[in-house]
Amino acid sequence: MPMRSGRDGFGEAMLALGASDPRVVALCADLTEAIRLEAFARAYPGRFVQMGVAEQDMIGTAAGLALSGLIPFAATFAVFAAHRANEQVRMAVCYNRANVKIAVSHGGLSVGEDGATHQALEDIAAMRAMPGMTVLVPADADEAYAATLAAAERTGPVYLRVGRTPVPVVTAGAAPFEVGRARLLAQGEDATIVACGIMVERSLRASELLLARGMRVRVLDMHTVKPLDVDALERAAAETGCLVTAEEHSVLGGLGGAVAEVLAERCPVPLVRVGTRDTFGESGPPDALLEKYGLTPRRIAEAVELAVQRKGEGPAAGGRPQG
Amino acid sequence: MVASSQSGHPGGSLGAVELMAVLYFERLRHRPDEPDWEERDRFVLSNGHICPVLYACLARTGYFPAEELLTFRRIGSRLQGHPSRVDLPGIETSSGPLGQGLSIAVGMALGARMARRASRVYCLVGDGEMQEGQFWEAAMTAGHYRIDGLLLVVSDNGLQIDGEVDKVKRLEPVADKLRAFGWAVESIDGHDVAAIRRALDAGANRSGAPTAVIARTIMGKGVSFMENRSVWHGKAPTLEEARLALEEIGASPAFSDLPFDPVPEGARADA
Fold first, then answer.
1. Counted domains in chain A
2. Domain shared by A112 and A158, yes or no
3. CA distance B105 to chain A (A)
4. CB–CB of A91/A76 below 8 Å?
5. Closest approach of A122 to chain B, Cα-based (Å)
């Protein structure tokens, strides 16, 4: 299977958008190659704005462009958009309901050797809390391409977190991409794994491990963390009786937090969250880091087994440690 | 407005009256009955806390009825404590968190350039907010891209909440700093209407560089007990103080058209 990164898909989609929609402009803060905007910058120099190392200014400038009728994509690493420029995103983009698309790569541990400072593990939580913000975390290059087009199409602020590391394309056969609609990638009745980003492919591998043990597990690609596909979660809870979330992000406030909120309020069933746990990352090769912090198919499979076990234990089984 | 709601920022608002009046009544190309007119000039109030003067300009140029001014800061009002774009026609961007306005104005000016619109973009900042790093990021962007059609107006009253800007954290020499960032600079008396007109026109006709008009202003201008006193940055006058103030400005007849129904004094004893 060909290995491509989410950011590759993003860069290609931007090139396509450049041709199809003259309102689309791109801003970058000294990371043009890293976020795959060189082709766009070459093809549409009049619609590419190099902001230098100035993310707060970039977000404000993007808001000004959006308020002038353009569709700006402001691109940088996740930490610098969601955290460095957090208040600019809040006021200039969200409070203004400005049609700004914040496109980030380098979310999560797969940043690798650059270490904890550059590994955003809290950005989804921060962006999800912003009023009116749509949060997209596509699984692979194909989905990143589709999500980029959808972000341009959608009116209002979007946070688009695309992967840095190449992963196999797993969404090719799925239903068409639609914001707010989870994509069913594997059928099953024993449990459901809800995943986003590169953890989708790992969740599919977990489901294969579990199939070998006689368990049929549903896998939902929850590319839209906000607005969350509540119907798909309710169906999964009713039909499979327990859920596991998997994200390259802290379990606090991200996909796991979002799913926990829905389940607790609407359909309480056992839930186990896979993600980082109130910790920073560190330097190392991406695969070694994902292993060390428990973001592997094996650990997802273990989480599913734990969730399935709790199903039988009934509501009193709340006291067990998770993960 | 501020007295009526017993909340708000009178000092900076009074200091920017001449600047705002020249902009809104003379220089800004806008259509109050068509706030979304594409070719309009844009105005960004970066120091959003002085929105009373902006709201007054918007009302008196016809964006909304003047009576609505007295809803300022009250529950359900379109006249939020700091400007809210989605609530009130004529507000080009929400603002208030300091140091953000110039970036947004730069984006608007770049947008006009990309769309080949002749719209100018005016951005008013207070001097204190130039302590924010983002202001200088935006100043660098405007200088680097030689964004003409962008006019920055600094209401330079030398005061901020904690006292004199020079003592809190010195900004001077502001004109030299802006020149070093690629700006053309006009330094004027911000209460001299003829000087304001000249400086704005010089900036509007300049090509190849953004223009900064550093306007020396007096916080609380026109009201003897408010002038140059930083306590009036964010404190509402009592009703008696407001009466005296309006009398000193000589503005009371012009305000008699407004139904005055103030929040009781002391009802908002917050910070």
1. 2
2. yes
3. 6
4. no
5. 23
Taking CA–CA distances from B96, the nearest residue in chain A reads A91
CB proximity A46 to B under 8 Å: yes
* Domain end position, chosen among A116, A141, A168: A168
Question: Rounded CA gap, B154 and B122, in Å?
Answer: 11
Decide if A72 touches B, using CB distance below 8 A. yes
What whole-number distance in Å separates Cα of residue A71 and Cα of residue A85? 19
Q: Is residue A251 one of the residues assigned to a domain?
A: yes
Domains and CATH numbers, chain B: 2-255 (3.40.50.970)
Percent of chain A with pLDDT over 70: 97
Give the Cα separation of B64 and B58 in Å (integer): 7
pLDDT for A50 beyond 90:
yes
Smallest Cβ–Cβ distance between B141 and the set A51, A63, A70 belongs to A51
Q: For residue A309, how many C-alpha atoms fall within 13 Å in the half-sphere facing its CB? A: 11
Domain presence at residue A173: no
pLDDT at A313: 83
List chain B residues with CB under 8 Å of A96. 85-86, 93-94
Residue of B nearest to A44 (CA): B114
Residue A94 within a domain: yes
What is the identity of the amino acid at B242?
Answer: A
- Mean pLDDT (chain A) is 96
Average pLDDT on A297-306 reads 98
Split at pLDDT 50, 70, 90, the class of A149 is very high
Same domain (yes/no): A117, A45 = yes
Query: Which of B241, B218, B242 shows the shortest CA–CA distance to B230?
Result: B218
Domain that includes residue A210, residue range: 183-312
User: B45: which chain A residues are within 8 Å (Cβ-Cβ)?
Assistant: none
Where chain B has pLDDT below 50, the residues are 270-271
For residue A315, pLDDT over 90 is answered with no
Residue A178 lies in a domain: no
Distance from CA of A94 to the nearest CA of B (A): 10
- The string of pLDDT tens digits covering residues A55-84 is 999 999 999 999 999 999 999 999 999 999
| Euclidean distance between CA atoms A99 and A180, whole angstroms | 18
User: Which residue bears the tokens 């591998």?
Assistant: A205
